[in-house]
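User: Need the bound-state model for GBH:
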Amino acid sequence: SKPPTEIRSDSPSRDFLWGAATSAYQIEGSPLADGAGPSIWHRFANTPGRVLNGDTGDIACDHYRRWHEDVALMAALGVNAYRFSVAWARILPEGTGRVNQAGLDFYRCLVDALLEQGIEPMLTLYHWDLPEALDTRGGWASDASPGWFADYAQVLYRALGDRVRLWITLNEPWVITAGGYLYGDLAPGHRSLHETPIVAHNLLRAHAAALASGRAEGIERIGLAVNLEPQYPASPSAEDIGATAHRDAFINRWFLDPVFLGRYPAEMETIFGSAWPRHSPSELDALRAPPDFIGVNYYSRSVVRADPTEQPVGARRVRQDARPHTAMDWEVYPQGLTDILLWIQGRYGNPPVYITENGAAFDDPPPVAGRLHDRQRVAYLRTHLRAASRALRRGVDLRGYFAWSLLDNFEWSYGYAKRFGLVHVDPVDRQRLIKDSGRFYRDAIRRYGRGPRHGDLSARD
Ligand code: GBH
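Assistant: Bound-state model below.
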């Protein structure tokens, strides 16, 4: 195992990154402003019945107009990094072809303001908001989609490659695929067993193509962000252990095995049966596109029981009733973060890792006299930072931690009902207020300064 990370003040790029994360559709609002085209999320959210309470991202956190204030908030929190995503349809309103300069200007101003505050930008190219015009042309199910994505990526590499050093191709290809094309609870809302593996394959091709186009533009650090959820069997029975392996393949290995190992998990064929396409050796080889780092989005774990009625995986989650849960009904399980980081280290050869999302929704108490006491979120953050610290001490090449999220925002099909922010956003006037969790995070960052000393991230109580 490697020695613990040391503080190297001579080189800011070696600092441990302490950040907060957001995504475009969830915070920006003004989705059609300044020449932007509509996205699949704009259409989906504006279709009655798709999002709780009929909420949409039409205003969201109004970040598109208040971004300057939000950069000041980040400076007040003391973060040295910020992960955000670019809305593809602001850059290319039709998805391909004509570039909308006003869209590029928005993100260039944001990035410059961040750099001015000493905040390192981490730019995600795709966080679920495909241009509607491309959905009309088949979306991610189209064989042409990897090319569209690589062309879009190239526009951004050329426009911002001189000031953004950390890039992410896709956020959570599993969620894009399963939510958008299998379960249908996310845009574009399809439910098709046959389409699903085709979409996954195209996303993997898109990642590889954007990585290649980045290399051609001299971009050095390009990652892939995946949602990972360690799976533990509910019992030692052969059925439950088998079901756990299936869910592990489905959620954790479906995308990482191809990019690092050039193959799909063997379980995928069992899961999809006749819907699983055949891939030639050269097709699989083309998927091998190891990113420069893995972005880990960690929220919870699963305890798994075999259940043949639960298709296509034949497994279901067993709720751990005795354990604490968040407002999403996800179990609070910090050790799962340590476990999944150690799993990456062992399976994929200790690649550089950023925790690109970690956080929780809770039913916060209302703000009183300029304070919001979200003690459950403070506890969640504290215990998960400790869990990250345990992995660091065991040699995981962990380079940074990004809390999800900077702001209470548009939580996809839950609309504004679920709040993940370190900063409260008033639902009526969008006024911001730093929660106790934001104060806790600021103090934790201050305490550990520019790097985790002796491999220990955990804040003293
Ligand atoms: C992230 O995805 C998103 O990147 C972010 O935009 C979002 O706001 C944030 O999380 C909070 O939701 O119950 O067995 O079906 C979340 C990834 C994947 C985590 C599915 C929960 C539940 C698995 N999610 N997982 S299951």
